[in-house]
Specification:
about 150 residues, mainly alpha
Length: about 150
Amino acid sequence: MTSRRRRIRQIVRAGAVAAVVSGVPSTAHALLTGGDLLAATRAAGTILPGRRDRPGVAAGLVAHVLVAAGWTGVLAAAGCRGGARGAVAGLAIAALDLRVASRAFPAVQALPRAPQLADHLVFGAVIGTLLDRPHRTDQGTTSTTSPGCKEL
């Protein structure tokens, strides 16, 4: 497998893991406060075209996957490496996502802010951490690259 293919697989894997675990803070908050466990998922569904006033779990899952994939690509292209840098990037994404979404989508605006910020922070930290991990080479060894350096 080529180095480029391995890198793409690493990015896809990081995005998938981050998309799943990034909902832990808002889920925990809902459990602790007796809130609706699926409120954030349904609210995310309203960002899809034609669904602004029609929240739904299936639409929310689709929206979440699309948004997570997009931000994963942005962070990977920007060379986001390391949990701390990823967490900062996640907070920057939250500032943009939540500001834009809150203005345009009432279901998103109705969500408690702190858990949503924490979700974004976790997303970025996981992406940064997983993109920073060495990957296996064809020779069975591991390869790492420094931020800003290309693989040879």
